[in-house]
């Protein structure tokens, strides 16, 4: 369910009483470089989180493997006791190595420990939503999610998890996983340049299930596009604001969680929710994805010779 407000409208997760503004906040960048260790400026990190919530953000994405532990500890320091209506979405399915490695696993022991770590470091008795992250860095590798879902379903029955989501999964993995327990949200790699999930988004929208793009601004490789720059100049916004506005207008079940570690950038991101793009500009922005596909083709062709 959606309706309009200054943060992109609201959305209610299916089968829940959790209603959030569609423009949220991703806390990953609150950690140090490579999402590892403490932030360069902890005071600023805390200020960013507090300003986000004061500005109306009530959907924050996090994980205890950000840091690890660091980001959740910052959220707790900045916001605990948490305001009514705030939804914290975390994820499990990975851990960090001593040299900042990302070690992916759906091992039962890791999943249970990860949920306990999130509960402790966030300072809560139950987690609003826990996303089970599938294997693969940016795109899913197709591995079964059933075993991991069974573990989270048990923890849900124990009252430690309220609702379950999925991250980095294919449509097929989603269909398989939801046979174990209801899924309220899917979080996948998607932005104006990477639109492989277009059909999947429409299917989820038809069922009222949230779709949350991770790396909506490109992630570790920020979006760069001449078309994006042209549209931004035409509407008097930044290219990144245009990229966010395009996603909000793509489908009513899309929830955004752009991340930042500065208040200046936070304000820019939130302002994108008020930007409305004309139909002609939306069509023009389709070229960003087409250009990205062409660039990948030329790169692959060159690499083959």
UniProtKB/TrEMBL annotation:
Coiled coil: none annotated. The keyword Oxidoreductase applies. Keywords: Oxidoreductase. GO terms for cellular component: cytoplasm. Residues 22-288 form the NADP-dependent oxidoreductase domain. GO terms for molecular function: oxidoreductase activity. Pfam families: Aldo_ket_red. NCBIfam families: PRK10376.1. This is Oxidoreductase. It comes from Occallatibacter riparius.
């Amino acid at each position: 369910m959606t309706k309009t407000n200054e943060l992109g409208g609201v959305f209610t997760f299916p089968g829940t009483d959790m209603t959030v503004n569609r423009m949220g906040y991703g806390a990953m960048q609150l950690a140090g470089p490579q999402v590892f260790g403490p932030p360069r400026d902890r005071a600023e990190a805390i200020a960013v989180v507090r300003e986000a919530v004061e500005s109306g953000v009530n959907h924050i994405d996090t994980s205890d493997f950000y840091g690890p532990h660091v980001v959740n500890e910052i959220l707790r320091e900045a916001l605990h006791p948490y305001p009514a209506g705030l939804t914290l979405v975390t994820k499990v399915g990975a851990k960090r190595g001593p040299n900042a490695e990302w070690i992916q696993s759906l091992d039962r022991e890791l999943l249970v420990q990860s949920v306990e770590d999130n509960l402790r470091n966030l300072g809560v008795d139950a987690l609003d939503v826990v996303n089970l992250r599938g294997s693969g860095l940016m795109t899913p590798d197709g591995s079964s999610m059933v075993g991991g879902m069974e573990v989270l379903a048990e923890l849900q029955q124990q009252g430690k998890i309220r609702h379950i989501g999925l991250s980095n999964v294919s449509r097929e993995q989603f269909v398989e996983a939801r046979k174990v327990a209801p899924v309220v949200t899917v979080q996948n790699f998607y932005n104006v340049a990477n639109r492989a999930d277009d059909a999947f988004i429409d299917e989820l929208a038809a069922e009222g299930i949230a779709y949350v793009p991770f790396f909506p601004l490109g992630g570790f490789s920020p979006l760069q596009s001449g078309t994006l720059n042209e549209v931004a100049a035409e509407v008097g916004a930044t290219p990144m604001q245009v990229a966010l506005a395009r996603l909000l207008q793509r489908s009513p079940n899309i929830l955004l969680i752009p991340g930042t570690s500065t208040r200046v950038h936070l304000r820019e991101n939130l302002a994108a929710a008020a930007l409305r793009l004309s139909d002609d500009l939306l069509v023009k922005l389709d070229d960003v994805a087409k250009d990205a596909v062409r660039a990948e083709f030329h790169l692959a062709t060159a690499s083959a010779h």
